[in-house]
Amino acid sequence: MRWRGRGFPVFLTVAWLAYGEASPGSAQTDPVPLTEPPRYFLDYAMLVRKEWSLLDATTPTRTPKLQMFRMPSGFLAAPLGLVSEDDPPPEDPFVKADEDDLAFMRITYGNHVPYLDMHKRGDPGGFGYYKIHSQMQIFDLGPTNVSVAVQAVTPMGLQAGGVANGPTVLSPALACFHDFGDGAAVHAFIGQHIAANARWREQLHTGFNCGLAVQHPVPFTPFSADQGLFVFLQAMAQYRTDGFRADGRATTWDVIPGLQYRLNNACWMSMGLSRYHFLAWTWQY
């Protein structure tokens, strides 16, 4: 009896299948001969021409690229403290240049005005010096920019109303900028000052300079790509291995907090505070 109870559902299933095959109104279809064309097919031409509605790419945030004191930038920009009479009008940094132009390079030269930057004692240049800034963009990945910059300062000479004699110093650096979105970003660089003389090879091991900076809009204040009030914090370090400092310290740090107020990309002001300068400001228009 137990076997019957378990096999009864199987018996009903077999009987139902047999009745379906024998009935004239069965849902079963006759096998299709191989010589007949397929009854159902895809229109591949229509499938290729179809415009698929994909999700729109995320719109990148238009975070302004602030220029920091005593730091080369990861994006293409003229440094602070360089005044050129042939400067073109400021351009929107978010506008893409033509492919025919050398958009990945920038060369600027002019007079060095240390009051427009935090010029520390011992830094190369000053009044009476020419300053040349050359920069090449290595990577431009949207939110991340990496560039190589080489700055040079040289005496103007008495005939140009500058310093008669003085050192010519080259300052190569590798700089990076990364946009976190919503007005926040980080800046970083590493470089070195090299005196251009017969002993320049012996100075490559004397040390290097590096820096890190962060920017963020002031909370509860509106901002856009070219307007707003931003706070920034810089940490600058100088490392020397030649024992030049009298106190014997190999590394010196300088922390610079500051504010930048922007009316647009061509008109902004930065203010910073450090132990070497009570207040430094830059006004570009």
What keywords describe this structure?
2 helices, Porin, 9% helix, twelve-stranded antiparallel sheet, 285 residues
Number of strands: 12
Annotation field: number of helices: 2
Structural class per helix/strand content?
mainly beta
Determine the CATH topology: Porin
Question: What report would you give on this structure?
Answer:
- With 285 residues, the chain is mainly beta.
- It has one domain: Beta Barrel (Porin), CATH 2.40.160.
- It contains 2 helices and 12 strands.
- The protein has helices spanning 2-22, 44-49, and strands at 82-83, 105-112, 129-140, 144-155, 169-181, 184-191, 194-195, 207-217, 228-240, 251-264, 267-272, 280-284.
- Strands 1, 2, 3, 4, 5, 6, 7, 8, 9, 10, 11 and 12 form a 12-stranded antiparallel β-sheet that branches.
- The protein is elongated, with a radius of gyration of 35 Å.
- Residues 1-5 and 53-59 have low confidence and may be disordered.
